[in-house]
Model the fold of this input.
Amino acid sequence: MVKFSYYGHSAFLLDDGNYRVLADPFLTGNPKASIKPEKVKCDYVLVTHAHGDHLGNAPEIAYNTGAAIISTPEVIAEAESIGRLECFPMNLGGSINLPFGRVRMTLAQHSAGVPGGTACGFVVNIGGLNIYYAGDTALFSDMQLIGRRDKLDVAVLPIGDNYTMGPEDAAQAAEWLGARYVIPVHYNTWPVIAKDVQEFKALTEKVTQAKVLVVEPGGELELD
Ligand code: NI
Ligand code: MN
Done:
């Protein structure tokens, strides 16, 4: 069992009861943020790329809590402008074993927000579940390989369009990934990414076997 807590935009926490894994904690300046950065308790922080709406408060949270940042070397260098942090530098296609399970860094088709870098996604094995977090990305056909490599229980996908794939492409992604559950993120934070999430849910549940779980900022769900 894993508790999923949504903090707004693309920020969320996975908690297996022993370890807490935070993702893309953009809280300060996030109009949908449901928690203050100083209230976040976590052991690891996944950062998909260095855009402000993803790297966000990760450096200060890691600095203040001792949580380890998991990201690419270029993003870690950016994060460490605050001071030395505990870090796990990775790159695309690599996996690491951590006390709660395995983390695999996957491709994403997006800019990095830092010179020479690359955006990424993650497959996180925690609490017996494989949870794919796409980060910011366009639809790309190699998503099929992600679903083939790890049998996915959950896919956390951006649906806001403009900066990432929109609802139609995210529904196609859901079909290719084959996850049992899809959790939409990266929408309704600002007018430019305003989307009708119920339309996305209806479309995705029509074209895939997946169940779409809509979580409001500040909401939680238990996944198993
Ligand atoms: Ni971005
Ligand atoms: Mn973004």
Summary: Helices lie at 52-55, 58-65, 73-79, 143-149, 167-177, 197-207. The two ends are 5 Å apart (CA to CA). The first strand starts at residue 2 and ends at 8.
